[in-house]
TrEMBL record:
<keyword id="KW-0812">Transmembrane</keyword>
<comment type="similarity">
    <text>Belongs to the CpsD/CapB family.</text>
</comment>
<dbReference type="GO" id="GO:0005524">
    <property type="term" value="F:ATP binding"/>
</dbReference>
<keyword id="KW-0808">Transferase</keyword>
<feature type="transmembrane region" description="Helical">
    <location>
        <begin position="179"/>
        <end position="202"/>
    </location>
</feature>
<dbReference type="InterPro" id="IPR027417">
    <property type="entry name" value="P-loop_NTPase"/>
</dbReference>
<dbReference type="Pfam" id="PF02706">
    <property type="entry name" value="Wzz"/>
</dbReference>
<protein>
    <recommendedName>
        <fullName>non-specific protein-tyrosine kinase</fullName>
        <ecNumber>2.7.10.2</ecNumber>
    </recommendedName>
</protein>
<dbReference type="InterPro" id="IPR050445">
    <property type="entry name" value="Bact_polysacc_biosynth/exp"/>
</dbReference>
<feature type="domain" description="Polysaccharide chain length determinant N-terminal">
    <location>
        <begin position="10"/>
        <end position="98"/>
    </location>
</feature>
<dbReference type="InterPro" id="IPR005702">
    <property type="entry name" value="Wzc-like_C"/>
</dbReference>
<keyword id="KW-0418">Kinase</keyword>
<comment type="similarity">
    <text>Belongs to the etk/wzc family.</text>
</comment>
<dbReference type="Pfam" id="PF13614">
    <property type="entry name" value="AAA_31"/>
</dbReference>
<dbReference type="GO" id="GO:0005886">
    <property type="term" value="C:plasma membrane"/>
</dbReference>
<keyword id="KW-0997">Cell inner membrane</keyword>
<dbReference type="InterPro" id="IPR003856">
    <property type="entry name" value="LPS_length_determ_N"/>
</dbReference>
Amino acid sequence: MNSREEINLDEISIYGILRNLALNFWLVLLAAAGAWFLVTGVKEMSWTPRYTSSAVMAVNSRGTGNDAYSSLSLTSQMAGIFSEVFSSNVLKDRIAQSLGQEEVEAEISAAVVTETNLITLSVTAGDPRQAYMVLQAAIDNYDTVSDYLFSNAVLRMVQEPDIPFAPSNPLRIDRIRTLAAAGAGAAVCACIALLSVMRFTVQTRTGARRNLDGRILETLPFEKKYKTLRERFSRRKKGILITSPLVGMGFAESVEKLAAQLEHHMTRRGQKVLLVSSVAENEGKSSVAANLALALAERGRRVILMDADMKKPAIWRLFDCRDEGAELLDYLEGKAKLEEILQEREDLTVVLQRDSVKNSSRHMDSPAFKELLGKLRTDWDYVILDSSPMAFTSDAEFLLKEADAAVLVVRQDWSDVRAVNEAADAIRQSGADLVGFVLNAFRGGRSAFRHGYGYYGYGKYRQKQGEEV
């Protein structure tokens, strides 16, 4: 994974870290739940339930009117000796014989109640029935062991043996599970935050100016794609276009400023064909290309927007163009004429491509495509090419040979800075004029854990048409 070699605080977006935590909160919950169940499983596997049956007996004198010894100290002494009798191996052997067992699989204990003549007799075993039977057998057989020691003392039952219904050693792990879950969740949060900081992406405008090898043209603020629940669940979804009354003023103004800068730059140099690309998918290059074309058209220029991303075409989605008219591929294969692939949308002329093309590079480098651009140069003021991302296909390389200028769209906290600069160098080496970078969706970029780093996650790009532009 790409990471920073040097961390500058002004290049770190706190909002981005918080957004990464929010977007990946399911990982935090998963880690917490995993720790919870792990502790529960380990404890339950190592826990053996034990059941305790108890009885209370009093030490009384034999053959006298008193219920207890006259001296409390002597009574306590006798009770202590009785407790030793109950814990003796001799009594355990008698109990085993009476139960028909080789040995007593239980723990017998006797404790004297302080400053009384009472003895609490307890038997703990792995089975409640076994605990009760051993205790009853101990009471029935203790006199055979103690008679020769105490001829003038006898035990009187105060509390009959009880049958245990619940373990005497309950599994108390609530606190441990809570601490484990909280610790695991906190550790994952720390890892997400650390990875967000260490990733060498454009997170702030200061970082962009410092690390990107080129001019920053404009910063486009994040614009929410779906304004209402109806739009979110609608089958016919349109993209973010400045012609929509629902688009924010900040976004529209930023696009207008970008269009003014590019028009000034290209007019001074006599340039007409502008390529709009990015390093990775989902950085918003298609949205930038479409809105830039619309802004130039609003300035009274004759603009044509061509979807030259034949791997994952998206312009038709932005303008909600379904199966209407011929496509770019039809013209390149000689199945349609130029006027048949030109469509008017939002005061703009567009050339669409709806289906993904496997051998798209062959068409981008074909004489038919070069001829098409030659015709468009003659009849339009500007030709905007929406190119495929540069890191995953060679289509952009062939388009750069025909383009006069290019801009790179860089989404906040998305692609590695080094990959962006490598793409910029490739544009310059092709002979095209790299006008600069457009910082897109500036707010808190989506997390790399969910969408992939700049060079990763593009396998699906070759397999299906995309949803995000």
